[in-house]
Specification:
Distance between the termini: 39 Å
Strand content: 15-25%
Order of helices and strands: HEEEHEEH
Structural class: alpha+beta
Largest sheet: 5 strands, antiparallel
Organism: Luteimonas soli
Number of helices: 3
CATH superfamily: HIT-like
Protein name: HIT domain-containing protein
CATH topology: HIT family, subunit A
Number of strands: 5
Strand order of the largest sheet: 1-2-3-5-4
CATH architecture: 2-Layer Sandwich
Helix content: 25-40%
Shape: globular
Pfam family, one: HIT
CATH class: Alpha Beta
Number of domains: 1
């Protein structure tokens, strides 16, 4: 049985995700967003499903679609940035809305080899760097 959050009958992006990320593209199920932290190439997939907070809130077809979109985001980061490792996580401890982090990691990044959360202060993109990063991602998405 799907658990719905009270008062959430339609999809809305959580305010914290809206504040911390920038739009990149829309996939069939999810919005693809860029985390506003230039320390890492860091994407966030947010399924457009009202009230979803856990993977089990999606039906089997939606879970397969999300898996395909995680694959697409992972390949995008791998092709565009050639990372040493890809980190994929769906935590949601602070933001309950279902979202999946896909992060390109490098042995030279400021948190390596630890998880990125809480290691170093986020470095927001400058307006120019943000446009360049989103354009790069969209070029690789079209390729």
């Amino acid at each position: 049985m799907k658990r719905k959050q009270a008062g959430h009958d339609r999809y809305e992006l959580h305010p914290q995700l809206a504040a911390d990320t920038h739009p990149v593209a829309s996939f069939a199920l999810s919005d693809l967003r860029l985390m506003d932290d230039s320390n890492y190439p860091w994407l966030v997939l947010v399924p457009r499903m009202a009230g979803a907070s856990e993977l089990v809130d999606l039906d089997p077809m939606q879970r397969r679609e999300l898996g395909d979109e995680i694959d697409q985001a992972s390949r995008l980061l791998r092709d565009a940035f050639v990372p040493f490792k890809l980190n994929v996580a769906a935590l949601g401890n602070l933001v309950p809305q279902l979202h999946v982090h896909v992060i390109a990691r490098f042995e030279s990044d400021p948190a390596w080899p630890a998880p990125v959360w809480g290691r170093v202060a986020a470095r927001p993109y400058s307006p120019e760097a943000l446009v360049e990063r989103v354009n790069t991602l969209n070029e690789f998405l079209r390729a």
